[in-house]
Amino acid sequence: MEKTGCPRLHATVPWHWQVKNHAGNWCNILVIQAKELERAYQDPAIDKIKVSPMQRKHVTNYGCEIIKLLGKGWCEANFTAMTMKSSDGSQTFELRRLSTPSSSVSDSEHATPYEWFFQDRKKWIPMENSQDIETFYQVESSVFMTFKQNKYEYTLDFESMTRQNLDTEKQTAIRRRPKKRPELQPRELKMRSSRKAKLPPSWEATDNTQVSLLAPLSSGCTEFLEIGKRMADFFHKVKDVEIVRVQNPTLFLPLKNKVTEITKRRKRKPLVLRLFHWPRQDQVDTICRDNFSPRLQHPAITYEYGRGTYFVRSVSRYSDTCGPGKGERGVVFVADVLLDGYVEGDNTMNSPPKIPGSTNTYGTTVDSQHMPTVYVKFSKRDYCPRYVVHFTA
114-178 adopts what CATH topology? Predict the structure, then answer.
């Protein structure tokens, strides 16, 4: 929080994020959440994100103050309005980003490089003359900049953040964003190479002291689009979809190691399905940290195929009983689930029965032996959360 004395913010990275409290003072957002904001802000396609919950563990007094201000749940940051909502949605605070001077006017090694983009349909395209635009933006007092590119003449309006083609009179939106910097993956946060090699290449580097990292996905990235295809029918019925990648090595690696063990033993790789799981709405953070369990899944699930953790092939299964009411926010998980033999289950099963003629048990019970759509699991090494999907019904 702001204090009297030195007017500068002292930080270990060349940027930081703050919100303004009711007294008009600017309060620093915790480092982990600030990094989430910075990563998202670098992508011009992202208008707003859900920032992961702020934990009270291992924080200073100022950390407790920001948690008291914003709450302990997910907070929504809006980069267009530069605002941040409290976790319960009842309050909206002004949001700002601080950084070192632009590299267009500073030779410092810590200066911040920027890039300019224009919107073409739904895509954000880098401008060829970004450096010239940034210099003009920093040096000149005018809110208008006119330049020629190819055979057209354009005017930029820095007040409305638009670009107009003076020949066709077509107007498009523009955005200024910091370029990606290595400070978001500092040396002390890099994973050991042997461990990192076992993790998905799309994962961002995490602090070894962190249990998990929740990384918001851009709506145009490959992962978001792939999940969209799997949930296409469901997505047509909902809106305001946001997807967060769950990066938790303590949950991902046990499943991966079990798959490796089975592959070595049987000389063939077992099937791993990507399924859906309906949770209790207030247990999302616990699942991301500790994994799924029967006590954390939605109370509408009645254990008709066994008293384990339920996963479904189609997200629409149980959506009527587990989904939110019209206009309300809801959440569903995308999970990786090991399928290593299954049998039809019933509500008396606390664990899968033995395989006939063997001392081993089935790993899964299902709703139908021939065409299963519901899978019930009983071992935490057989599954892990991969994505959290937030939506409005």
Answer: 3.30.720
